[in-house]
Amino acid sequence: MLKVLFAPLQGYTTSVYRKAHAEIFGGVEAYYAPFLRIENGCPREKDLRDLDISGSQHSDSKTQDCDSVVQACDSEARDCAKTVPQIIANSINEFRTLTEALLQKGFTEIDFNMGCPFPMQVNRHRGAGLLSDVQAVQEIMDEIKKISSDANGTAPVKFSVKMRLGQETPDEAFALSPILNDAPLTHITLHPRLGKQQYKGALDFGSFERFYSECKHPLVYNGDITSVSQICEMERRYPKLAGIMIGRGLLARPSLAAEYKQTHLDSTATSQDLLGKILQMHSAIFENACQTYQGDSQILSHVQSFWEYLEPNIPKKIFKKIKKAGKLSEYREAVAELT
Ligand SMILES: Cc1cc2nc3c(=O)[nH]c(=O)nc-3n(C[C@H](O)[C@H](O)[C@H](O)COP(=O)(O)O)c2cc1C
What we know:
Elements: E1 3-6, H1 15-24, E2 30-36, E3 38-39, E4 42-43, H2 45-50, H3 66-72, E5 83-87, H4 92-104, E6 109-114, H5 119-122, H6 134-149, E7 158-166, H7 171-182, E8 185-194, H8 205-214, E9 219-222, H9 228-237, E10 243-246, H10 248-252, H11 256-263, H12 271-292, H13 296-307, H14 316-324, H15 328-336
Helix pairs in contact: 1-12, 6-7, 9-11, 12-13, 14-15
The structure holds flavin mononucleotide.
Flavin mononucleotide (FMN) binds at residues 7-11, 34-35, 86, 113, 115-116, 162, 191, 199, 222-225, 246-249.
């Protein structure tokens, strides 16, 4: 059975979302947090706060490390929201600053982003914008080697990489293969598109297969997985695959990972179960938004995005009502129609 990892999705998979998902749906091995980046020379505070499972809204909490994040999950929960933080950097300096901030928080696993296609990041030489810079990647991989061997009796830090084939051409990933193979990475997650395609257009399975055969690290596949049968097909086609990372497919069907696990037990969730659990998860997110934000429009802007990818699971009329609600009372009424 393949491990299923929840992909980082900036603006969607917040700490509240991750914890609610783990408690209500589960089936996910680890949740990759949206990237931490440098803003005005420092690690962005908003990103750092989100890595604290309790978040800023419960500001009496102290900074928690990764293990206590896991412990902080409801002990009754079927799964725990094991969170792996991610960083995005354009140079060895940014890399060091961000890594240091996470080590101070006690994290022992860090994912490095070399795939973000957002022009704001690519133009700053980050994410997919870094893939063509062999020298910068070499320096960062050397730093990973150094940090991994400098553990000095403390828990060693594990690094993984999440990447695309390139910004302009798949040659970029193949040029990096030897450098990546030589670095002490736990795994690589590959999204087989180019940065210039963003999140649409054909997936390049030819290049994925070449990378799969050249890569010496465990390889995780990421891209357009929306059903249990697709996961099973990947498992059959690529026996060496270490896992599947899913983003939008899990936002749209939060039960997907648990359903995949259950296929091995020969049972599936009914659509009634699914809607009930979606509503349960929504309650956690809604409650948190009401405690954190003020005024109908601020609260609504945070909770309405929860439904965006869930459209196929709910009646069209109610979906429209939820998205169009301008007042909390209208929103509550629309959501209540789902029960
Ligand atoms: C709105 C949005 C935000 C994203 N934020 C991140 C991010 O912070 N870090 C990252 O590595 N990938 C990010 N991604 C990419 C996803 O993690 C994933 O690689 C991509 O959606 C493809 O997988 P999927 O088809 O399963 O969704 C983002 C994608 C979207 C659509």
